[in-house]
Write a structure and sequence with these properties.
This protein has one domain (2-130). 56% of the residues lie in helices and 0% in strands. It has seven helices and no strands.
Length: 131
């Protein structure tokens, strides 16, 4: 399960080595490939550890987050958005944005994602070890 989350972290710009940007002409193709990869990871993450990670990071004081943790939140996008500016429910990142909002409003992330046995600190440390 953490290996799948690590795979997701590898595609996040600014996380570790991240992925190199392609030419501007390939930007739309890059977005489509990224969305497909996120969807693959999301479907494989049966325990919801990726969403628990985003939930816990959303609950944290951003001043205390590491560069990598901030990159995760930046990649997911804003949790609270104005009507019409957010992602549609069929977007590959939508569930992660909802998870971020849950953390921002004080939800108990461990109870929201009970199948995931890891907290954010353990996940980030394990992922960094894998990468």
């Amino acid at each position: 399960n953490l290996a799948m989350i690590a795979k997701l972290m590898l595609i996040i710009p600014g996380y570790g080595h991240g992925r190199k940007r392609r030419d501007v002409d390939d930007e739309e193709e890059e977005k489509q490939l990224l969305a497909q990869e996120i969807e693959t990871v999301r479907k494989a993450d049966m325990a919801g550890c990726g969403m628990r990670l985003v939930c816990e990071l959303g609950a944290a004081d951003e001043d205390k987050l590491t560069e990598e943790e901030l990159a995760i939140l930046a990649f997911v996008g804003p949790g609270v958005v104005k009507p019409g500016e957010g992602l549609l429910p069929d977007s590959s990142l939508w569930e992660y944005q909802v998870s971020r909002v849950m953390g921002q409003v004080g939800a108990n992330c461990a109870k929201a994602f009970p199948a995931c046995p890891y907290n954010a600190t353990k996940m980030v440390n394990a992922i960094n070890d894998l990468l």
